[in-house]
Amino acid sequence: MTQTPDRLAGKVAVVTGGASGIGAGTVERLVADGARVVVADIQGEAAASVASRYGDHCRSITTDVTREEDVAAAIDLAVAEFGQLDLMFANAGVFGAYGPIDKSRMPDVDLTWAIDLRGVFVSMKHAARVMIPRGSGVIIATTSPAAVVGGIGNHAYSAAKAGIQGLMRSVAAELRYKGIRVNAVMPGAVVSAMTADLVLGDATAIDQAEALLAKDAARRRPGQPADIAAAVCFLASDDAEFITGQTMIVDGGLTAIGGNSPFTRGQFAEPGAMLEAGRRA
To answer: Is 80 exceeded by the pLDDT of residue 208?
Structure first.
């Protein structure tokens, strides 16, 4: 991906779930584009490791997004260390509760929603707390194709990701008059430890997961964290200053295309027209 070192120069970001996968890839791109970043993740040691790669451009903090005080502390750290907050990337999430609807374990469902939806809500709340007095800022949340397509995500996850889209639009309607933009990104299958765990049952088997996902990828390769990071950095930049209340879909065509066109191959390889009662022209 082409980096633009001055695009986010002087900007300050907080990335939840920033210690791995899409989050870590976005931290890398944000720094490359000139931003300073707080890496906020429940994996505290991993967050510190990511932050250490970028020296004075990064700080880290252990953050459990189910705890409002943790999210507030991550945002306060950005202000204390870097003086402001320009971007809140509410990215932390898990696949969470799975299994048939009639056998659902509600404590697992509640935890999934606490991480995937409530965590985004409090991230927006505390980002707005800091951004409203300044009259500027960008909030971005991570949703999923499971929000709009049935059968590709477990029930609790799908509900949470759909909720993020509704929440995003509602908050965008309030905050656009205060100079704050609110959007979402919708990744498809992205190579990460979480995806490796999902498809192979081994979070460390990232290379094998990448090879497996590539077999069915519409673009002949699976999505990478850098693909999502590029979208986030665009939405965070002044190039996107007239975009709010929107979901940017970055999924290789999964939700929009559905499948390969059958009307360009086989008996339809040559141009023609299908008319009434089977007549061809």
So the answer is: no
